[in-house]
Amino acid sequence: MTPGSSATVPGSQPGSPDQPLRVAIIGAGPAGFYAADHLLKQNDLNIEVDLFDRLPTPFGLVRHGVAPDHAKIKNVTKVFDRTADNPRFRFFGNVTCGQHVAPADFRNYYHQIVYTVGAQTDRALGIHGEDLKGSHSATEFVAWYNGHPDYRDLKFDLSQPTVAIVGMGNVAVDVARILCRTVDELKETDIADYALEALAKSKVKHVVMLGRRGPAQAAFSLPELKELGKMDDAQLRILPQEAALDELAKQQLAENPDTTTQKKVDLIQEVAAAPDAGKSRELTIRFLVSPTNITENDGRVAGIDIVHNELYATDNGTLRPRATEQTEHFGCGLVFRSVGYLGVPLEGVPFHAKWGVILNEKGRVTDENSQQPVVGEYCAGWIKRGPSGLIGTNKGCAIETVQCMLEDLKAGNVLKPGHPTADAAEQFISQRQPAFFTYDHWRSLDEHELNLGKQTGRPRVKLTTVDSMLEALGK
Ligand code: NAP
């Protein structure tokens, strides 16, 4: 449904001029903003949106996930600012669903509820040693260097010369880049100041990325791979024998030609043939290897055992990895597990634990027993479809959910809240969390961070504690 094309609803129904449809969106990342935007674009419906986040600041992974050296990607927040300009939009930051407000509470104040909480934890490898000191999830490291208040106090032992990263998606690539960049490169970014300080003292010399499949199945994207070859003082290395495609991969690429994959494979082979550039750090991408054990010394990570894999075709033609007899060990003092994010359940909301998503059909939350839609409850983004895709992918995903919401509204399938007014909701929130942050608060914080950046020659200096944010607002 395009903006303005939604059907009007009869007078005195939610969405009519005299009774707004009240919508709560839980999670102010891209999916939450895109859902809010599409709802507010329905010109012939009277819709009010309250967007909640557990953090005082909006934007979710755009602020705390996108790598600091990817400033252009963060420009998407200008689009979100325009959504927030709408007088029928309100932001309630520093309000945690499940702590200050239960999902059930929202049903008293809103006709529709949308969960856009993302995927807040990470997948485990399931191997011995992954809980040792020195073994971390990449998602923690990402949140740490991006100044996430809940992760700012973590410590990573950057005195280690060798670091292993398991996985070869774009998150693994981000982590590798941040470990390999020079302090001058990092200074030009909005990386958290404590992370800049720690990375300036880093003794890391060699980063090894471990991919379980081959070059043609690498999850990282082509621009990300290109970027790895352009770092100031770190050389990208790939072993020639691992850059070559095996017969199955060659056959699949010949039968299903794909320009992007072909370009990725070509670049991988080019890197493998490149001479040594004499840079002081090295980033090696390994293909067709899986970790089997993280070894320890005195309770700390000391190394990693890996097994070489071969590819086999599944019934649907996907090439999967299978262990061979060939094994290897290398010493490393730090391991980052980067094998995907995972959603966590919200109390009382149907959840598929293995997939880490809310049970849903096109964004309509579904009951785990009857598999029928739960009236008035929806989801969008990673908590709906799993942790895949770029920021823009969430737009189409959120629009699909909003279309279901509009269809249900038209059919009269909405919640019947006892207090469906903006004032009643605000009163309730301020009882539960008096220190909630509004979008105006965020605009002031944004200006404050940009000013701090100007004073230190950086694009922005992030505030990384709730207390420092309250102080900056004079609260
Ligand atoms: P991802 O793209 O799904 O990559 C996960 C990686 O982990 C894959 O290489 C996967 O290998 C590997 N893996 C999974 N289980 C494993 C296991 N048991 N042992 C070894 N390896 C294993 O996930 P992500 O890197 O967390 O990224 C999440 C999403 O955010 C992606 O869509 C990504 O493109 C996006 N993102 C984009 C950017 C950007 O645009 N710059 C930056 C960051 C993230 P297989 O392929 O063999 O399964």
Detailed description of the structure:
There is one protein chain. The chain has 475 residues and is an alpha/beta fold. The chain has 2 domains: 3-120 and 343-437, NAD(P)-binding Rossmann-like Domain (Rossmann fold, 3-Layer(aba) Sandwich), CATH 3.40.50.720; 123-138 and 156-183 and 194-338, FAD/NAD(P)-binding domain (3-Layer(bba) Sandwich), CATH 3.50.50. It has helices at 30-40, 61-64, 71-74, 77-84, 103-106, 138-145, 170-180, 183-187, 193-200, 222-228, 240-243, 247-255, 259-273, 382-385, 393-410, 422-432, 439-456, 466-472; strands at 21-26, 47-52, 89-92, 112-115, 121-122, 135-137, 162-166, 206-210, 234-238, 281-286, 289-297, 300-313, 319-331, 334-337, 341-342, 351-352, 357-358, 360-361, 364-366, 373-379. Strand 1, helix 1 and strand 2 (47-52) form a beta-alpha-beta unit. Helix 1 (30-40) packs across helix 15. It starts with 20 loop residues before the first strand and ends with a helix. NADP nicotinamide-adenine-dinucleotide phosphate binds at residues 70, 125, 166-172, 174, 211-213, 217, 219, 224, 290, 338-341, 387-390.
Short summary:
This protein is of the alpha/beta class.
Bound molecules: NADP nicotinamide-adenine-dinucleotide phosphate
The residue-averaged pLDDT reads: 95
CATH architectural name of the largest domain: 3-Layer(aba) Sandwich
- What is the spatial order of strands in the main beta sheet? 3-2-1-4-20-19-18
Total number of helices:
18
Helicity range of the residues?
A: 25-40%
What is CATH's topology name of the largest domain?
Rossmann fold
**Proportion in β-strands:** 15-25%
Shape call: globular
